[in-house]
Structure prediction request, 375 residues.
Amino acid sequence: MATPYSPGLEGVTAGISAISEVDAERNALIYRGYDIHDLVEHCTFEEVAYLLLYGELPTTREYAAFRQTVVENRNVPEAVLALYRQFPPDTHPMDALRAAVALLAILDPDRHDHSHEANRRKAVRLFAQMPVLVVNGYRILQGQEPITPDPERDHNASFFYLLTGQSPPDLFLRVFNVTQILYAEHGFNASTFAARVTVSTLSDLHSGVVSAIGTLKGPLHGGANEAAMAMLLEIGQASRAAEWVHSALAQKRKIMGFGHREYKRGDERARIVKRYATELGEALGDTRWAEISQVVEDVMLQTRRLYPNLDFPVASAYYLMGIPVPLYTPIFVMSRITGWCAHIMEQLENNRIIRPHSEYNGPRGRKVLPLASRT
Ligand SMILES: CC(C)(COP(=O)(O)OP(=O)(O)OC[C@H]1O[C@@H](n2cnc3c(N)ncnc32)[C@H](O)[C@@H]1OP(=O)(O)O)[C@@H](O)C(=O)NCCC(=O)NCCS
Prediction:
């Protein structure tokens, strides 16, 4: 017996998961039992990646071994960089990343092994490779040479080193770490659900990740961080912000980085990152983005009762750190790869093909006319 249709599957419970709990009533987000406030306060992104992929926070020994494995798996096969060299320079980095992961599927040393252990090895490899894929891929699209990762640097520092060839200020690392932790996992969001649907057919882990990347790319999901920055740049100054938002709303445009399917009383992740983005702006002597953002936030709350989601403060935080805008959504992938892979493994541990019902609303009772009689 089919349940009534809910557009966008709003309010539908589509699975059971022990990976994260989105508690919209309390504005809380919990990863495997740990509150995000606790995690951003006390953990590196690598510890949280381990938590998501292995189910527990690592011990000192496990952490050292994990970091060593990550360093050893950072480099991507030359064929992947060669693939990037084939792409037109205006290729969006998310399209390039999707193609790169599809190629990595074919080259993966465990490609014929779909066991849980092999899937975790694949997940750790993809996690380790992401900064190189994202940044060196972007460098190639920009006509620059890739940079060899430095084994002495941790995951986040390695990202900045690949991007700039230098060590970033500690504040950048602290803020980036927080955003990577907060982007890592979020229940049955669209891209995670897409990954679970894909592997529920017993397809492979990389196919699930490719589906997820394609799903994350859209501006209603991960693409919102780039779209939010494009909006802030277009607004340009705080004195223009209110009028800009009113006019966009009057044209029925969506304000990117606002609203959320689950959180109707605000996204706690956005509140956390807003504090860091403000600190960053003050430290750099550039408070323009915080000022514009505050006006946009106030107008959205007053006129639509809509709050910013994580993508809104992240956009200006990344901008202040000098990260190129087309990398914002790929950076989301660098983090969410952990949540996706955790969900893929969880789906496969207790799998049933995800195959919902649709309600037919097309014509009925039509008779086929011979081809020659159809006009
Ligand atoms: C996140 C999002 C897709 C959730 O979608 P949803 O749960 O289906 O909510 P809806 O789109 O039905 O929104 C409900 C109402 O609020 C409005 N609304 C929602 N988000 C809005 C936004 N960012 N700007 C303007 N209006 C918005 C909708 O137009 C709708 O109005 P209506 O009832 O008059 O038609 C939606 O809020 C959105 O598109 N946000 C912008 C993109 C974004 O930031 N995505 C990142 C999500 S983390």
Observations:
- The domain at 224-320 is CATH 1.10.230.10 (Cytochrome p450-Terp; domain 2).
- The chain has a mean pLDDT of 97.
- The first helix runs from residue 36 to 42.
- The beta strands are 20-23, 28-31, 34-35.
